Amino acid sequence: MLEVKELACARGEQKLFSDLNFRLAGGELLQVQGENGRGKTTLLRTLCGFIQPLEGEIQWQGKSINELDEDYFANIVYLGHLNAIKDDLSALENLRVSSALSGSTISDSAAIAVLRRMGLRGRETFPVKLLSQGLRRRAALARLLINKAPLWILDEPLTALDVSAVGLMQEMIGEHLRNNGIVIFTTHQPLEVSGAVLRRLTLS
User: pLDDT confidence of 103, banded at 50, 70, 90?
Assistant: First the structure.
């Protein structure tokens, strides 16, 4: 369970929001929304532990994430605006690196199966810099399928995706929720997950 208590965050000297409270259990889906500049990305990065809040506390399974430290980081996977993949490496090599960073290994056959599900059949060994923006995004999203972390924090995950990839992303989120995972996301595009109850948090 993720719980946010009396959270306040700022950007520079500007306070973005305060007195923020919510709780999420396994199988729950939360969309963070609000106008540009209201602090959506700041909130997501704070939930990841990348930014310290001005006030308040974030708890995972009843303990402060500051106390849990690396034990908390092992339970989250974050996907930001940038793909965070190395352009000179192939999609396959990038997936191996992501797997190693999460503390596990992945066989070539398993990695190729994941990349093919993401629509990269025939391009698994191409340098990522040769791929279109949409295919690069698919390569970045592939790491969601190999990471066992229960908490997904996704900042604009649908960026650069075509209709079929958006459908695949919705399917992946649905599977994660059915496996008792938690998903927090922002998006400027419609995202509908079959069978899931979507909660919304508006920053204003």
Answer: confident
